[in-house]
Amino acid sequence: MTGFHRKHAMRLLRGDIGQSSVRRSRRRIYEEAERNALVVLWEASDRICGKRLKALLPLLIEWMERNGHMGLAPEIRAKLLAVSASTIDRALGKIRQEGGRQRRRPVASALRRSIPVRTSADKDPAPGYVEADLVAHSGPSARGSFIQTLVLTDIATGGTECAPLLVREQTLLSTVLTELRRQLPFSLQGIDTGNDTVFINETLKAYCEQANIVFTRCRPYRKNDQAFVEQKNGAVVRRMTGYRRFEGLEAAALLAELYRSVRLFVNFFQPSFKLIAKQRDGARVRKSYSAPTTPHQRLAADPHTSDTVRAQLQEICVSLDPIALLRDIRSTQQRLADLTDVRSAGDSTTAAPANRLLPRQLANGLERGRISTDGPADPQSEARSSSP
């Protein structure tokens, strides 16, 4: 409140007023001329920090005088070459506060602080709290525009929903999120995202507030905070789509068609383990897992699930054919492979091996003719092709 140093405040409280309370001003070494020249040099250096500018000043002054951009008097030139990095920062303090030193930041600090952090140590919530992430289908090069997949993974059940995004845009993300909410067998209660600007923005925050959705984020550079969705990025998305480059409306339509079959096949016919507890014994960590269960079974067994939802899930499960779903998945995968092969035929930088799109076992089976994409698959042939 007062700006006093703690020692000065102690002297005042003791009544020791022998020392003068008037602050003596330091003798000025650098006047307005040196400060103005320093601002010009700072702007010419693209507004770098004081320590870097101090190292650059001898060369920068020489270059600017050689090219006629600056003419300094000998005494001013000597002072600028002798100035310290801390003095440079103090001299440029006002112009930085006025907006001349504002660097581009990915996300506003106030906005980031307003979104609470959820860590990997938090307890498992009820169904309806999901983790969200994006998977880029850029291939070997991140240049240009390419499709990305929005992945939602329910923390309690492991259920996964995927949808393609034609571009990285927050309004489009909100629209796709609305479509995915209609497919969920439960109401979306909360969403936990990374620190990407496509998630941390006013648009998505307002969307969650309007829909009464709890919006949280993970800690930066802590991938384990989003372990559930990170695991599904590889086990579901990369396994189904591979690492090829997808771009354009046709590829987005094929990915949407693929994900319509994938969501049913994964959520109803793909059992998965779930971590129950961890116990540390010295340097060794012992982990306990539940029995392999499908997301549909976990949701049906959860006490928070209503009888109406259980009946709807059972009705959907009875009507599904896993062989037909797998055949549709493989057919769409092959169409995606053919599409990317045609587009990458004339571009060697984006070309990829034909079997990179499909899983290794599936690609080998297609090449050997064991797996048919036109009819039901042979279980025995599929078992042979999937062996290590």
Summarize the structure.
This protein is α/β, with parallel strands linked by helices. It contains 16 helices and seven strands.
Notes on the protein architecture:
There is one protein chain. The protein has 388 residues and is of the alpha/beta class. The chain is 48% helix and 11% strand. The chain has 16 helices and seven strands. The chain has a five-stranded mixed β-sheet, with helices on both faces. Helix 2 crosses helix 4 (74-82). The longest helix has 22 residues, at 322-343. It is elongated. The chain starts with 5 loop residues before the first helix and ends with a helix. Residues 349-388 have low confidence and may be disordered.
The strand order across the widest sheet is 3-2-1-4-5
Helix percentage: 40-55%
Q: Segments where pLDDT lies below 50 for 5+ residues?
A: 349-388
Query: The biggest beta sheet, please?
Result: 5 strands, mixed
Secondary-structure-derived class: alpha/beta
Count of DSSP-assigned helices:
16
Per DSSP E runs of 2 or more residues, the count of β-strands stands at 7
Kindly estimate the percentage of residues that lie in beta strands according to DSSP.
5-15%
In whole angstroms, the N-to-C terminal distance is 71 Å
H/E element sequence:
HHHHHHHEEEHEHEHHEEHHHHH
| Morphology | elongated
* Average pLDDT figure: 83
| Alpha-carbon Rg, integer | 31 Å
